[in-house]
Amino acid sequence: xxxxxxxxxxxxxxGHGYLRVLRTLHEVLQPRNYFEIGSFAGESLALADCASLAxxxxxxxEDMAVVRRIVSKPRLLLFRMASDLFFQRxxxxxxxxxxxxxxxxxxxxxCEFLLRDFINTERHCAPNSIIALHDCVPxxxxxxxRSYLARPPIVPHRRHWWTGDVWRTARLLRRxxxxxxxxxxxxxxxxxxxxxxxxxxxTALLDRYDEHVRTMLGWSLTEIGLRQHAAEMQVEPTSDxxxxxxxxxxxxxxxxxxxxxxxxxxxxxLRA
Length: 272
Fold this sequence. Notes:
- There is one protein chain.
- The chain has 14 helices and 8 strands.
- By secondary structure, the protein is of the alpha/beta class.
- It has one domain (about 20-270): Vaccinia Virus protein VP39 (Rossmann fold, 3-Layer(aba) Sandwich).
- It has an 8-stranded mixed sheet with strand order 3-2-1-4-5-7-6-8, with helices on both faces.
- α7 (about 165-175) crosses α9.
- The longest helix is centred in the first third of the chain and has 12 residues, at about 20-30.
- It is globular, with a radius of gyration of 18 Å.
- The termini are far apart.
């Protein structure tokens, strides 16, 4: 039985921001392609120097410096639509000319949406690809409401922080897909979860999708507790992650390290 929460708010995460985490992934892994759901202002999309595909209902880009970085890619595909419709009509691997190597999922902040986005993205990845999930480790309960700003924050400076209930999706993945490898980082404001050891042929989540959604919606963060959820997610400092070679981190696919070793390149050399 889950222990009740001992507090309704956690301290702010003290790690490096999620954009720096993503930038490090691009710099070290040097993926041939990048796939993103939920671009918002475009800052995460601007980090990719490779062929990139992004899906967003609006693409509200305003900063021209960001836009210039986005359009400078060797190949750029933008699909202005909901992610469910995108996957109904398109194959991201076919559009990119290869399996998706690095993906960032930051779309609709409801657990069933992120679950579908993960299922659909994994199908188009390689086993050693990495899927990054945003906003899965909330630091207070009001930010986890399924509607935007449904309650005032407990800590005033968090007034516009909204994760929705995608924490449920990360929790489900850890429990129902033990074959996956996870690294959860304390990137402000609400964590980044890196998932690899993927199985593009798996139907475990899709076959029981309705059951999984009922399970997720049955969880109460008040009963679980913010600290307990963070403990289950095994949150670790971004400082350790960014200063370590990826081969020492559970989140990084063995195939990435092996391919670098075979080419005679060291991961530390790539950072230089």
